């Protein structure tokens, strides 16, 4: 909001729009775009069709806005200015100057640290999954485990991923390969009372689950199938059932015999 920037008049606000934007809470991921980059029309090619009130928004971002607009129109222009700045930002951070600014923020840990324990607090980089606006929000990339995460803050989680683009992180490490860390080979090992769970146990569980899933799919397709070894298990089960039945018959015979002796004795 405008209250986040210590301005008392509209002229102050329009004179320092980029300072206000960068210093606003929730915009910590953005770097400041150089004025000469913003005033070069070549860098803004095609954005006039993507941003409503494009010229007014550009005037506001470049601090030359001079329009006596009502509150509703000013709010719309302000929204368009933020969107325009984000789209230009995605282009700027893959330039030499933009990469240098983002590397500086990366080294200071401005984007947070990897939540994965085995990465030991490795710094993150903001990245988008798409280059088109309104498709996905920003994610945080860890170059150590090579995975992406959601930002912790809800203010950051609402930022459009297109404001950073899907190519930024790869471009940064192509230009600055010395920043690439050694890939982590450490993995969490499940243990029971300090002893590692044997890999064969996990494999056996996976094989049983895979076999059950396969049998279920075959059954749904109208195919009855048995794996090798299941016939022996069925035979063993039938033998056990026969033994139980034989034991029950013997018990009944003993009971009948005992009843007969009692009648004779009477």
Automatic annotation (TrEMBL):
InterPro entries: Casein_kin_II_reg-sub_N, Casein_kinase_II_beta-like, Casein_kinase_II_reg-sub. It comes from the Eukaryota. SUPFAM superfamilies: Casein kinase II beta subunit (SSF57798). Regulatory subunit of casein kinase II/CK2. As part of the kinase complex regulates the basal catalytic activity of the alpha subunit a constitutively active serine/threonine-protein kinase that phosphorylates a large number of substrates containing acidic residues C-terminal to the phosphorylated serine or threonine. Belongs to the casein kinase 2 subunit beta family. Tetramer of two alpha and two beta subunits. This is Casein kinase II subunit beta. It comes from Aspergillus cavernicola.
